[in-house]
Amino acid sequence: MPCDTLFSTGRNPDLEKNSGEWGCCYLRCWVSVARPENHSRDSSYFYKGHDLSSLLMLEEGGSIFKDTTKHNATRPAEAILGDGGMNSVRLRQWVNPIDGTYGLAYNIQLAKRMQKQGYKIYLDFHFGDSWVDPNKQPPPAAWPTELKPLARTLRGYVKDTLVAFKKAGIKLDIVALGNEIRHGMLWPVGYVDVDIQPTSALNQNFSSLATLWKSARAGVDDALALGVHRPQVMIHIDDGWNITLQQRWFSALTANGVPLSAWDVFGFSFYPFYGTAATLANLGTTLNYIAETYRKPVHVAETDYPAICNGQYNPIPESSEPEIPYTVAGQLEWTKNVISVVKDVPYGLGRGVHYWEPAWLNNTSLGSDCNDAILFAPDYSAFPTMVGYSRKSVNLFK
């Protein structure tokens, strides 16, 4: 089979027993893909993660962190958070950032440091030179703009990135192929509208995205063929509380030839201030549906909660759980509740919660209308040097 054919149309009976067709062309027609339940590592392991992508940037600017439980001793942020129960670190990967921040060399440096301390590494591919999220997914400036060459470039990029981490001695535990890709990725080629009706039109709308995602997934297999440790492959969507979104999205993706065996874990973003429907109960409904339907592990890949939200700069957003205060105690309560929802997912498939950027001292709002959602109280008195004093909420994973 020509190696520019990404997926065969053949059938693999062994894989079909669990998850349908999977024919990845890398030198040979069939690549054996482990069944999800066998690939999810120790089923008793629960990821308690923090996204620390900005940590090197902060430190290079002179920021330091103080541990208020140790007489304000200066300590690395990951040491303080590790004492609070963190066991994994999430890093976002940009393709060609202008100043190198969040790029390959930056992340290899940070991942080496975290792995040395025993933290599992979860790499979040953004497939852009800068931010990508549900509202924007611009492709890297140097990449092609036609589907076929774009797919080939994407495949090679994933392979090369994973091989680079291997050569640096880093074992990636989870890789997310795209960040919050509700509306697709690599726009406009890979854009999707999940609200299109009828279902036939929705499925057709997902065709290019499916081609691109399969290319990224083939890049993982290319890396495995070169000796890379096999990571768990994640699909990451926002609005984890919205069951209708998740039902339509994954149905359309699989209708376009992406087999269930192509990914190992689901990741969902879940924030309290993006609509009053973003309740813990609705999150539970979605995660339970995913577990019952797909029998794969689920993670809350991003969450946070405000420590301060007083309306000083923006109107106070309405919380989906108004009984949980916008305070440090509220941060603890919110996260404990999210963990409880995830752990209650059937079949033991609730496997992790990841708090987004808890140490970002110069971006404390974390994209919300609230003042401060991080886990360190910032001190700007010696700006541009910044000091972060640990709050009680650094212990939210204890």
From TrEMBL:
InterPro entries: GH, Glyco_hydro_53. It is an enzyme of class 3 (hydrolase). One of its GO terms (molecular function) is glucosidase activity. The keyword Hydrolase applies. GO terms for biological process: pectin catabolic process. It comes from the Eukaryota. Pfam families: Glyco_hydro_53. Coiled coil: none annotated. It catalyses: The enzyme specifically hydrolyzes (1->4)-beta-D-galactosidic linkages in type I arabinogalactans. Keywords: Glycosidase, Hydrolase. Its EC number is 3.2.1.89. Belongs to the glycosyl hydrolase 53 family. This is Arabinogalactan endo-beta-1,4-galactanase.
